[in-house]
Each structure stands twice: as structure tokens, then as C-alpha cells.
């Protein structure tokens, strides 16, 4: 485990060349950070591997080196469940009772509770069940591209990258056609309402209404089971154990977020990254069998999820000479770790044939993304179909004009205007 004296390492060459010094604590919501993440990451790895940071008024420690992020995932001196670490409230800020069922998610649990929940949920995500969705994803991608045919310019996220995972999660959860407009409102509340002052409306109004909608859908599935993941979760059982009502609702919201939010931005980031590296796009066209490897490299090089869930120290810890106090929250920055030169050869080079590629884009350890297989499949199909149908695809604006969402821990664009021909 990290202790004092283990922090020394040889100087490395990278985007940080000793001419960049950000102000501390590092504000993950500031324009300077959001628009220059990789430069900040390089500075952190070299100068402040245990870096003081903040999200609004909330203070935390940030880890940026690959070895540190990997160690944190298995270090017994940390807990994701804040109550188990330091007692008191489960979260560092008070949450309305109406939305606590949404927040008490498997991803903020530790073993053995995490193992119990994951064991139950795994039954609904058997590889064979996910694999059967391949034809549906291909058919959906073709339908979307047919609609776009003849349009010279599109907004890729809205018109293509978002509809694929949204439609698939609707089908997976068995949402009836007449309820899809309300379901999409739930998606919007979860994705767009968690920043700035809008979070107040989200907590006090939007999420309670979304929760009411989800409770009604769960109740209907209990009485009228169908062949979908929601029904499978309701009836999931392991050694006599089942999901409680709150656990089931929490899992529904987790599946919604993980099932479309990350994938839609992975597809968007992948298209942009490929267009910015035409040599790699040409290689993919010549060697279509590299599509799986290309998706993995996008996750490493320019993936959408850069920060993992918080972990809390259960005791004072000397981490490579830096003190992490008991109860102090720590966030591993996977976006920084994925560019660590000690873990990847030439990390600033985008190489769709990179091997090995042990990135953290889908998480790490026991919290590895449950829906990674589905996200990979959707992204591979989306890219393959798009580049086949529109070989002259290109950006419709300058890369410098693209804007990032200001959601800490994410690396995602507000929009991606594309010219199809």
C-alpha cells in the first residue's frame, strides 16, 4: 500500500513541460479546468499526484496516477459508503427523503453489500441476453441513418448518438410505446438537471415525479411480467435473497444513466476523435476488424467518464507522503490515469491497434461497469454504420468552437455538428 517514500519517480515527457501551474484547490467545475483537462492531468501526475480539489464548495482529494487509481479500488482503508467509513449521513450533503432511493445505489456500496446487489443484478445481464441485441442495434442504426439521408449537416449527439442507447434502454426495460415521452423526461431530469441552480428544482420537483413514474412501472411489471430487464430484476433471486423496493428503484435509475448517458457520449467522442485522426480512420476502413480495439482506445484516449465515485478514508492515511484524513473524500481521475506514461507507451498517441490497453474507461475492479458489453456493442455498431454510409463525414465547425458540458467528472460535448457529405 502507498506509504511515505514511494512517491518518487523519474521525470517524464508529456503535455506538461513545467510551464503550467494551476491554482489550488483545483476547481473541477471551472472553465480553465474543463477546457484544459489533459494539461491539468499532466501537471497533477507530475507535481501533485494527491491533489486538493473542489466541486463547488465541496472539498476532496484527487488521484491522477494510474497506479494510485488502481490501488484505491482495492484498498481496504477506504469505503464508498460514507456511513460505513465515518458514520453519520450517507452523503456529504443532505438529500430530500423523496430522492434517497435514487441515490442509494450499488455503485456507492462496498462488499459484502455490493457483492450481494451485483450478484442479483448480474442475472439480468447475462452475456447471451446482451448478445441477442446485436441485430436490433444494427436495425436501429440503419433506421436513424435513413432518416438523416439527404441532410447535409446534422447534430450528431441529438440526431444519432443519443437515440441509439435511449431506444435500447427503453426496450430493455420494457417501457410501453405510450409511456416513452414520459420516460424520456425522466432521462432529461437525470442528465441535464444535476448542475448549477437547476439541481434544486431537480431534487424538489423533477426527481420525485420521475420516482413516482418508476414506482408505477415497477408495480405494473410485478403484476404483468414481461421479457425485459426490469421484470428480471424484480424476480432476481439468489439464495432466497431479492432486491428491496428501494434497491430496485435505485437500480432502475442506475441502469437508465449507465444505459444511455455514457454510451451516447462515448459514440460522440469516438466520432470526433476519429475525425481528428484521419490516419486512424483510414486504417479502420482498411481493417474493419479493428473496430473493437478502436472503441477501447477511444475510451482510453478521449472517453466521456473521467472521474469515478468518491471513496472515504476510514483512518488517517499517508499516501505517498501526502496525508489523507479520516473521512476525507477521494476521487480517482480515470481520465488522467488513462494518459499516464508509466502505464501506457506514448499515451498522447491515438492508436486504434493499441495492445495491451488496460484503460479505466469502464471502471476498475469490483465496480467495473455492468453494462460495458452493451456499451461496446452499441458503439461499435454506431461507428461502423455511420462511417460506411457517409465516407466523406467531417466536422461542420472548427474543433475550437466545440463546447464541453460543465459536469464534474465528465468529458462530454454539448453538441457535435457534422457534415455528412
Secondary-structure topology with pairs:
Layout: E1 26-27, H1 31-34, H2 37-47, E2 50-55, E3 58-63, H3 66-74, E4 78-79, H4 82-86, H5 97-103, H6 113-122, H7 127-131, H8 134-148, E5 153-155, H9 156-161, H10 163-173, H11 180-192, H12 198-223, H13 229-235, H14 245-276, H15 278-286, H16 291-302, E6 311-313, E7 317-319, E8 322-324, E9 329-332, H17 334-337, H18 372-389, E10 394-395, E11 417-419
Parallel strand pairs: 1-2, 3-9
Antiparallel strand pairs: 2-3, 4-6, 5-11, 6-9, 7-8, 10-11
Coarse shape: globular
CATH level-3 fold name: Cytochrome p450
The helix content is: 40-55%
Per CATH, which architecture? Answer: Orthogonal Bundle
What is the fourth-level CATH superfamily? Answer: Cytochrome P450
- Gyration radius from CA atoms, angstroms: 21 Å
Order of helices and strands: EHHEEHEHHHHHEHHHHHHHHEEEEHHEE
Query: In percent terms, what proportion of residues is strand?
Result: 5-15%
Question: What would you note in describing this structure?
Answer:
Helices cover 48% and strands 9% of the residues. By secondary structure, it is an alpha+beta fold. The protein has a six-stranded mixed sheet. Strands 5-11-10 form a three-stranded antiparallel sheet. A two-stranded antiparallel ribbon has the order 7-8. 37% of the residues are buried. It has helices at 31-34, 37-47, 66-74, 82-86, 97-103, 113-122, 127-131, 134-148, 156-161, 163-173, 180-192, 198-223, 229-235, 245-276, 278-286, 291-302, 334-337, 372-389; strands at residues 26-27, 50-55, 58-63, 78-79, 153-155, 311-313, 317-319, 322-324, 329-332, 394-395, 417-419. The radius of gyration is 21 Å and the shape is globular. The protein starts with 25 loop residues before the first strand and ends with a strand. It has 18 helices and eleven strands. Helix 8 (134-148) packs across helix 10, helix 14 packs across helix 16 and helix 14 runs parallel beside helix 18 (372-389).
Amino acid at each position: 500500500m502507498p506509504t511515505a517514500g514511494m512517491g518518487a519517480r523519474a521525470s517524464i515527457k508529456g503535455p506538461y513541460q513545467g510551464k503550467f501551474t494551476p491554482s489550488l484547490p483545483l476547481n473541477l467545475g471551472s472553465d480553465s479546468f474543463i477546457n484544459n483537462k489533459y494539461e491539468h492531468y499532466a501537471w497533477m501526475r507530475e507535481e501533485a499526484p494527491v491533489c486538493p480539489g473542489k466541486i463547488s464548495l465541496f472539498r476532496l482529494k484527487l488521484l491522477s496516477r494510474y497506479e494510485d487509481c488502481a490501488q484505491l479500488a482495492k484498498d481496504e482503508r477506504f469505503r464508498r459508503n460514507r456511513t460505513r467509513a465515518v458514520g453519520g449521513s450517507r452523503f456529504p450533503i443532505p438529500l430530500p427523503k423523496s430522492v434517497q432511493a435514487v441515490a442509494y445505489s450499488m455503485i456507492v456500496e462496498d462488499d459484502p453489500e455490493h457483492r450481494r446487489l451485483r450478484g442479483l443484478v448480474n442475472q439480468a445481464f447475462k452475456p447471451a441476453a446482451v448478445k441477442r441485441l446485436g441485430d436490433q442495434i444494427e436495425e436501429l442504426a440503419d433506421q436513424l441513418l435513413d432518416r438523416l439521408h439527404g441532410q447535409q449537416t446534422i447534430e450528431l449527439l441529438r440526431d444519432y448518438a443519443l437515440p441509439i442507447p435511449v431506444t435500447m434502454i427503453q426496450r430493455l426495460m420494457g417501457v410501453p410505446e405510450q409511456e416513452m415521452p414520459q420516460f424520456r423526461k425522466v432521462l432529461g431530469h437525470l442528465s441535464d438537471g444535476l448542475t448549477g441552480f437547476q439541481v434544486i428544482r431537480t431534487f424538489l420537483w423533477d426527481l420525485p415525479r420521475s420516482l413516482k413514474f418508476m414506482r408505477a412501472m415497477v408495480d405494473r411489471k410485478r403484476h404483468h411480467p414481461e421479457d425485459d430487464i426490469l421484470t428480471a430484476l424484480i424476480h432476481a433471486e439468489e439464495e432466497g435473497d431479492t432486491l428491496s423496493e428501494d434497491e430496485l428503484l435505485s437500480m432502475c435509475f442506475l441502469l437508465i444513466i449507465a444505459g444511455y448517458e455514457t454510451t451516447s457520449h462515448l459514440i460522440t467522442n469516438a466520432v470526433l476523435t476519429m475525425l481528428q485522426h484521419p490516419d486512424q480512420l483510414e486504417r479502420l476502413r482498411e481493417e474493419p476488424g479493428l473496430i473493437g480495439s478502436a472503441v477501447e482506445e477511444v475510451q482510453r484516449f478521449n472517453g466521456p467518464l473521467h472521474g469515478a465515485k468518491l471513496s472515504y478514508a476510514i483512518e488517517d492515511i499517508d499516501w505517498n507522503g501526502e496525508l489523507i484524513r479520516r473521512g476525507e473524500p477521494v476521487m480517482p481521475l480515470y481520465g488522467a490515469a488513462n494518459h499516464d506514461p508509466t502505464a501506457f507507451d506514448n499515451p498522447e498517441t491515438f492508436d486504434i491497434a493499441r495492445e495491451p490497453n488496460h484503460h479505466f474507461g469502464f471502471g476498475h475492479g469490483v465496480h467495473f461497469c455492468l453494462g460495458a458489453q452493451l456499451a461496446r456493442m452499441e458503439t461499435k455498431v454506431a461507428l461502423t454504420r455511420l462511417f460506411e454510409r457517409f465516407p466523406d463525414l467531417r466536422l461542420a465547425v472548427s474543433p475550437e468552437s466545440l463546447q464541453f458540458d460543465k459536469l464534474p467528472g465528465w468529458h462530454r460535448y454539448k453538441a457535435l455538428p457534422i457534415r455528412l457529405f
